[in-house]
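Form P-L/3: holo structure prediction, ligand fe (ii) ion.
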Amino acid sequence: MRQPTAIPKFSTGLNPLLASFKQGPLRRRTRVMEQLSATWDSSFVASDRFPEPLRMGEFGYRDDELPHSNRVIDDLAMATPVRLLDARGSAALAEVCRSLEPLALGSSFIISRRLRGADLLSPFLYNMLRDRSFLLRISRLAGVPLIPHPVRSAAAQINYYSGEPDKSDEIGKWHLDGMDYVLSMLLTDPAEFDGGEFAYFVGRRDAFDRGMIADADVRTAPLHAAGDAAFFRGSHIYHGVSPVTSGHRMVLTLSFFCPSFAAHDSNTFLHVASDDGVPKTVPGWLRLKWPTRNPFRDYALRSGSPVVTWQDLEEADARTVPARAA
Ligand SMILES: [Fe+2]
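OUTPUT (holo model):
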């Protein structure tokens, strides 16, 4: 048993509380306009088959610990590598995210350098994240209807990592997300950097917290090309990024929300506030927790998203040859 040494664990205890009062603005006030050579196009959405995912049972979780309805037990744990966009879409997305890098801010909490709320700065990202075809594809992968998370600062985050001789290597510490449905998409060719492996722990979160970490339970996501992604239950699966020792690595992290399972959302106010600060967390928290009459309609309005329902998901499944590998 060991604590993986290349990646430190993020701080817990009082540190998130202290961080929630220390966080500055989500982004610098400087306006950097997106290079408009890249515009979102629905035809960028890929149609490749998804690999068979790992289920939560393989991580030690029981079905009665998971959200379930009369339709499904929501038990997807990790699917990787998956592709949401075709090669043209991945290249255009990478161009957009590169243009936003001057707005990224440093942080010592979990990710060394990141841009929160990136979709609120980029028409490309905003339109992609709210494109019906894109949402149906991610919903088919998850097996539950998904929309962008109503805590808008967290819906799209770009993480930047550089390894330069005169700087400390940038990193993503071992951590859990507040978010349940997380897509982490590599946007740089792995030949452009050293280090920077996406590691995850195959086991329960309480086992990791107790230090019960066997080498065999730490795996690396097979992200071998720009556009490859991991879709996983970020709130339950410990994950981190090893230090980037040279070159440049860029990742887009998207967080989704299932209106059917709103009551199971794993976020805590403190976790969000430790990233965004208390004042900026309050509006998003109200969007998440304010009562709803029709969850599908109300959460879509709060996320600025099309409505995606179970019926939409079933119809999309029926229209397409099964996207999951047999
Ligand atoms: Fe994360």
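COMMENT: The CA atoms of residues 100 and 292 lie 35 Å apart.
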